[in-house]
Inverse folding.
């Protein structure tokens, strides 16, 4: 019997070893091919860049270091790479123009603004920018508005109707299910947890959302007014009356220049390129163009460097990755930047709704240490709120876009409670303990006054620390910070008026200011952080990727994308550890 068991054990071991080896070789192959591959496409003479941004979502594509292989892989698919490529194309004799064709992207408003500004610079060289769509969302139309000529399908329309935000409230749902979220917060505007506390929107939240939407809209239509030479008043009338709901109305109101089918649009490009209608357009997609000219974009011979460190995503702690902020990768980048003599200044690009208050403070400390050696300039992206503002507030200077969502200076703590569910199904939790507070908090019992007092004390300490950090960093009176804080969200324009930011400007503006501050005009931009991963992590990710993807697609298909996003939001809040400095990032502006 033992012999059979040993044989079976050996057989199973061999199978597992073969499976592990197969997946390991597959991972190594993927990594190796990623490092050695090229786009396979080169830029031909008389070419047009197709600005397809569907696969561009982050400011920074990320650089990953796999210690087991001593291997580094950099993804050049971030917004920063797109902007650098468009800038390079201005003087590339092979590029004659840029085509924005049926573009679909998840980029935020300030990210689109950065592209619009870079396209406007591109046009000044005498090269053309044209746009075509079967249908324009408000965001995609904003991007297209900078084009010399805007085309639209005869059956198309523009979703030009103003901004709105819908928030789902779940207090009654909690009552019906018996699952209750225990919430303690500081900040009357801290609406990240409001849906769990009440069934209707508070006056404070309605006030801040109204002001926020109006401010973002003003920036949005202001740029379109400039690009299309249409008054803001006329644009507001068009939005109110839905006067871009079909192609004829859009043309009549000068939101577009031509009604045409795709082949007619392409013929227009061929005419601009001075080629025959039967000839093919030498078209290269933006990500392929980035790969083709990447080495040329880098200014290798520069004497100095400006380090741009990207802090993007929720602040969760740990190493972090391209979608989340962790003190591991961010602080390592800050240390490297201040120890590298070639790096003269640091620009911290923040695009985050916040998250862990502890991690925010750890990163804040590293910025304090870096400032003693080199200047730290902050550039805010779409969102730099709550914990995102925490890690920005002590910079030497802060730049924000007019539409940046920032502020939200407030904290909260939240834990789930299943007491009613337990009672309903006859579950009773009993605890044995050596000390009065040994059990801490049980999800099966009502929150004790002692635990609530302890959690409240922690919230108040962190809130007080938060506003103290802001007061010191912004050289403001603490009482004044407290008055404008309370978890309220501001746009970049409003934040500048309040003194929470210094200047309205782009990432390029922040980099230029940093260079001027350290008196250098011969510099290159070095991108950070580098995320470190181990083979075991890569292996687990590889194995779980397909299962997770199938599961996600199945759930989305069953309950819909919006409900799936709500489910993710609830899961995040339930799993969050420690006190959170988080803005209401579930805010969905349409």
């Amino acid at each position: 019997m033992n012999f059979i068991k040993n044989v079976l054990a050996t057989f199973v071991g061999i199978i597992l070893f073969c499976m592990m080896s197969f997946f390991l070789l597959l991972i190594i192959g993927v990594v190796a091919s990623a490092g050695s591959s090229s786009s396979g496409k080169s830029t031909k003479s008389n070419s047009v860049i197709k600005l397809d941004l569907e696969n561009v979502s982050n400011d920074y594509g990320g650089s990953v270091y796999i210690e087991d292989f001593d291997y580094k892989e950099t993804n050049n698919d971030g917004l920063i790479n797109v902007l650098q490529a468009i800038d390079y194309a201005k003087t590339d004799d092979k590029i004659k123009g840029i085509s924005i064709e049926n573009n679909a992207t998840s980029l935020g408003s300030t990210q689109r603004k950065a592209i619009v500004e870079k396209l406007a610079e591109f046009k000044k060289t005498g090269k053309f920018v044209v746009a075509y769509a079967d249908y324009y969302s408000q965001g995609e139309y904003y991007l297209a508005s900078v084009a010399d000529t805007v085309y639209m399908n005869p059956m198309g329309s523009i979703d030009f109707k103003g901004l709105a935000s819908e928030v789902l409230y779940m207090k009654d749902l909690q009552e019906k299910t018996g699952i209750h979220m225990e919430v303690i917060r500081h900040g009357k505007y801290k609406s990240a947890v409001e849906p769990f506390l009440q069934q209707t929107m508070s006056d404070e939240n309605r006030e801040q959302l109204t002001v926020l939407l109006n401010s973002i809209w003003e920036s949005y239509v202001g740029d379109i007014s400039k690009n299309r030479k249409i008054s803001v008043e006329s644009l507001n009338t068009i939005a109110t009356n839905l006067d871009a709901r079909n192609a004829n109305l859009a043309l009549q109101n000068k939101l577009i220049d031509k009604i045409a089918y795709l082949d007619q649009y392409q013929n227009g490009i061929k005419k601009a390129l001075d080629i025959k209608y039967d000839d093919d357009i030498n078209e290269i997609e933006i990500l392929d163009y980035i790969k083709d000219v990447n080495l040329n974009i880098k200014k290798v011979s520069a004497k100095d460097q400006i380090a741009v460190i990207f802090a993007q995503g929720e602040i969760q702690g740990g190493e972090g990755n391209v979608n989340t902020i962790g003190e591991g990768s961010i602080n390592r980048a800050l240390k490297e930047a201040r120890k590298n003599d070639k790096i003269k200044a640091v620009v911290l690009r923040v695009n985050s709704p916040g998250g862990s208050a502890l991690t925010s403070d750890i990163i804040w400390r590293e910025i304090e240490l870096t400032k003693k050696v080199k200047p730290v300039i902050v550039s805010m992206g779409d969102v730099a709120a709550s914990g995102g503002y925490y890690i920005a507030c002590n910079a030497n200077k802060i730049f924000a876009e007019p539409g940046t969502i920032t502020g939200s200076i407030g904290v909260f703590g939240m834990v789930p409670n299943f007491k009613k569910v337990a009672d309903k199904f006859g579950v009773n939790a009993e605890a044995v303990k050596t000390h009065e507070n040994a059990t801490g908090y049980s999800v099966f019992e009502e929150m004790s006054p002692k635990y609530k007092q302890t959690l409240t004390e922690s919230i108040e300490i962190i809130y007080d620390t938060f506003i103290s950090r802001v007061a010191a960093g912004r050289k403001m009176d603490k009482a004044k910070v407290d008055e404008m804080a309370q978890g309220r969200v501001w746009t970049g324009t409003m934040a500048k008026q309040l003194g929470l930011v210094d200047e309205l400007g782009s990432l390029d503006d922040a980099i230029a200011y940093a260079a001027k501050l350290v008196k250098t005009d011969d510099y290159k931009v070095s991108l950070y952080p580098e995320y470190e991963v181990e083979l075991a992590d890569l292996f687990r990710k590889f194995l779980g990727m397909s299962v997770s993807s199938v599961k996600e697609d199945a759930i989305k298909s069953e309950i819909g994308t919006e409900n799936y996003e709500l489910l993710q939001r609830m899961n995040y809040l339930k799993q969050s550890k420690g006190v959170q400095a988080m803005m209401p990032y579930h805010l969905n502006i349409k």
